Amino acid sequence: MNNSAGAILTAQDLWAGYGGAPVVRGVDFAVAPGRLTAILGPNGCGKSTLLRTLAGLQKAERGEVTLGGRPIARMGSKALARVVSVLAQNSVAPERLTVGDLVRQGRYPHRGLFSMWSSSDQAAVDEALEMTGTAHLADRAMETLSGGQRQRAWIAMTLAQQGEILLLDEPTTFLDPAHQLEVLGLIRALSEAGKTVVTVLHDLNLAAEFAGEVVLMREGEIRARGTPREALTEATLAQVFGLSALVVTNPETGAPVCLPRAPQ
Amino acid sequence: MTRFAVLIVVLAAAMVASVAMGELNLAPRDVISALTAPETAPPYVAMIVNDLRLPRAIMALLVGAALAVAGTATQAIMRNPLAEPGLIGINSGAALMAVIVIVETGTLPDRLMPVLSFAGALGMSVLIYALAWREGTSSLRIILIGIGLGALAGAAATFVSLMGDVAAAQRAMTWLAGSLQDSRWPKVVTLAAWSVLPFAVLWGLARELDLFRMGDEVGQGLGQNVDLMRGVIILACAALAGAAVAATGPVAFVGLAAPHIARKIVGASHRLLIPAAALTGAILVLLADIAARRLLAPVQLPVGVMTAILGAPFFGWLLWTRRNE
Ligand SMILES: Nc1ncnc2c1ncn2[C@@H]1O[C@H](COP(=O)(O)OP(=O)(O)OP(=O)(O)O)[C@@H](O)[C@H]1O
Ligand SMILES: [Mg+2]
User: Fold this and answer.
1) Domain B2-321 carries which CATH code?
2) pTM of this structure
């Protein structure tokens, strides 16, 4: 099961879209093991599409995505899902599904067509519930939870998958500031525990605070990347978001803080 | 498990009631003795029970179970609580073939009817799935194409039945209403034989059905081969419901209602839901058939008319409870 330890997910000259004009246009991407990468960019610039293509949910139109050197297009879908877990933007659970049932679905790629629920399946589910602080919610129906609890339950499902690489699309949308910090704290803890995480975020300052690497996208292309200090500058914010902003340094953490100016 | 025990007891009671009631009402005690020890029962009772009413009751049970399980799986893969097996072309495909056989009695022997209508059901489902394919399938495309082709095949069936003589048209109408009248042992055995494999496949794929409820995106993310599984499940549904329709003609609403009732009883996990739906569907058709035989006795209504009468208010209730979604 650990034969892909330290597997690196890369994309070379990746083009993807929905039949019309490509939405992801010639992206080169590589995630180093154990790194927490944040993807930022304006609405509709192709962040979700890039993430979906990296996860193999969508075919590349040109270029390819490789995992540990192997093209994912030629990997079995379950084998890929054992390494790469993906959380889609705005996932909605079916009615009356409990948190426990949701998290148990995460074991799907580890089970044969007719194999029984095993003790390692149970252990993975328990651990995922534990790490996300959702164990006490296991019997609650998803629709009865708050947005933050729901988000943590979805993250628990992707953790039960025990993939080393987590691709998360806006895991903090709809959350209040405290819950955003809580979810990002969880994500950082996962990355410190050795998981490779790529997450789409919209909050520049949270990305600056939590991510080891920031990728800025615009119109399907990567326009800037690097540590938050390197990538989040007044010039790149203007170029990517068309935003006039003052970038200062957080005196406590040293992370850049972006203070947008209202348009004149 | 007590829930299953209750379902089984209700099913057994419905079986006995179905066998006991008729032009000649039998005491449940006589029915049970005729079933368990035919040599001790009065010969005419044993004859009525074992040759006439038992095959009909078992046919009702099998048809109900088959339609209910096919409906459960269809609702899961379409992620649509109003889905039923007719949506994937089973009724329209089977009806078209059946009407052709009825009108062409001169050239096509009657015993080919179940085989050909089964082929019609299966063929129509495959056609719908193929036409919905566009670098993969989506449940919405399948539903839309299913409705379109279903209407087309229905029109074709009407057209064909108008080409035949009045008697043939009459027979076609009776078949289209869904009737247990002609339940003989050989037909019962054929239906049972055709149902076993698709039932086992659908129950075996319970986990895939659970995952389908979460949406294609989540399924794919977890490594599910969504298109392959959807294809296999649709084929199994078409085979199961197609076998039922071939035996009795379309019996409305069971495939829609039974899964909902079963879900209320055992929850949404398909490992339990599939057997519970089978039991529920069997009970529904048995009860509907009893009502169909007794309501206007001695006139016997086709069971499909009865399930439609019972089903329409259920459909309304379903829409009403979901009006805010
Ligand atoms: N299923 C689809 N079919 C057709 N076009 C799509 C589809 N999904 C997205 N698009 C288009 O692709 C472009 C990129 O969409 P994408 O979802 O990748 O953006 P995003 O960067 O994730 O935006 P957001 O911040 O709003 O989530 C948009 O112009 C969008 O309209
Ligand atoms: Mg997005």
Assistant:
1) 1.10.3470.10
2) 0.87
